[in-house]
């Protein structure tokens, strides 16, 4: 019975009506504990200790080919191969040794020290965004404020022309829906598989063409470095180069926008927090970490059992999918006292960037972008006010964030 109730609640997470506040559902799911979805090869894990145990367990894998149930993935196009051969997963979906080799190739670009050097450029981009608004007025805190910063930064880092951004954003938004759970009982919540496949193919063709251009005319960007690594020998194959670019582009596009938007929403709903941040920019770091916990941009993470194991008293069979409800774990009172309270000062052991070998490579960059964006928003936007609360949410279940957030303000101060 408990499992049936939990399965029904899990499927309700797909209902767009739940999007403004899924947290009561997550709380119910966590209180009942881990469960199997009927007789399906899917186990859902909800508490902080169980999610942490799964993320640390060497018997779980990210390799979706091991799963008994076929999962969404990012298709990659290669004209010389048959459809069945075309799927080349990025290193997010690879185990060692391929994961280790590919991650190492790009990790140098994302170390805290290298990322720290981007702070002046990031501040300049945020100030340029805010400069467009000076007199009293209104802007959309998602499309006009949260969105342009991460997108500009990842395009500059990768060496992707900013004028292609609208097209890239369309593909990226579609492809990130492959990270959403699906259910036969809620077919209307599914993205169109043909549309997803087309987006994957078109994004790959785009990177094929860009790679050709960069090969002829290299720059200081990450793409040129990856091309040099491919040319240098056996460090990465051409397919791996394309799937790595697609991963970085999608990761750089989607999640950080949601972090900035979710944090801006939390501050607008708490004017005292916003005033405190304005008076003391040091508080930004706490606000960012608490947003990562309280309204996590990534709500769930999947793994595949590569062996039989037990999680929270539930048997998991080899090939089962294990879905970790990170958003539920983030409100676990065993780890976070008074978990429904937004408290930037709390000791924050959130799992928003994952844990272990696949810990988010872009975490230092995302943290820096969000810290600068929130600080400049607090310092420069006078008397901001949400005009619609709750805002309209994106259709995505896993990568959570508002689609639009109109804000009125008295003025934007000069920089
Ligand atoms: C707030 C922003 C972000 C959040 C919440 C986030 C979250 C995550 C999470 C949870 C994972 C691990 C997934 C898993 O273990 O299954 C991950 C992996 C990854 N993220 Fe992020 N991410 C963010 C921003 C970024 C940015 C800006 C980049 C880079 C441009 C990036 C690049 C990556 C990459 C390459 C991986 C794969 C790491 C691996 O498999 O070794 N992320 N991210």
UniProtKB/TrEMBL annotation:
InterPro entries xref list: Cyt_P450, Cyt_P450_B, Cyt_P450_CS, Cyt_P450_sf
Entry superkingdom: Bacteria
Pfam families, A to Z: p450
Gene3D superfamilies listed in its UniProt record: Cytochrome P450 (1.10.630.10)
Cofactors: heme
Keyword Oxidoreductase: yes
Keywords, ordered alphabetically: Heme, Iron, Metal-binding, Monooxygenase, Oxidoreductase
Residue stretches spanning the membrane: none
Keyword Oxidoreductase: yes
One Gene Ontology MF term: oxidoreductase activity, acting on paired donors, with incorporation or reduction of molecular oxygen
Residues of the signal peptide: none
Family affiliation: Belongs to the cytochrome P450 family.
Protein's recorded name: Cytochrome P450
